[in-house]
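Input chain follows. Return structure tokens only.
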Amino acid sequence: MVGSSTGGPQALATLLGGLAAPFPLPVLVAQHMPGPFLKPLAQRLGAETGHDVRLATHGTPIEPGHVLLAPGDRHMTVRGTPRRASVALRASPPEHYCRPAVDPLMRSAAAVFGAATLGVVLTGMGTDATAGSRAIVAAGGRVVVQDEATSVVWGMPGAVARAGLAAATVPIADLGATVAALCRDRVAGQ
């Protein structure tokens, strides 16, 4: 589960570019951005990184090899079971003045995937992703954050780090490799 805001499009491109395509696990992204800009962002990320990046729709299956981007003006959440998970889009009130917000995605992912959940918090203003990161850690999952030096704004990742929820604080250029290693470790440990 990836959350980003200010500076997020470039950070997402770098993160996804550091992951082998197709990635053997699903990747869900909540980027703070108005709706009309999200489809072009998905297209750009797919073209630049070689990943299958698409806007999520209500009921989209969550499957390995797909990168699902939350559409505008809806919170993207996870429902179902670990083996049969799908996207649920919600028009519930904005959180942190945002919809989509990161916290609903992370909280719901932790509820469905438990200890298998990995949260990634990229550059962005505010504290969105802190409550979601807390839910992931409480479920036995891990959270990694982008470091201050490579963040446009170290609000979101900084808040998670200051709350003691980050298992690692990593420069954006190394984040793809870190995520891949954590996913390999998690799969090998099951």
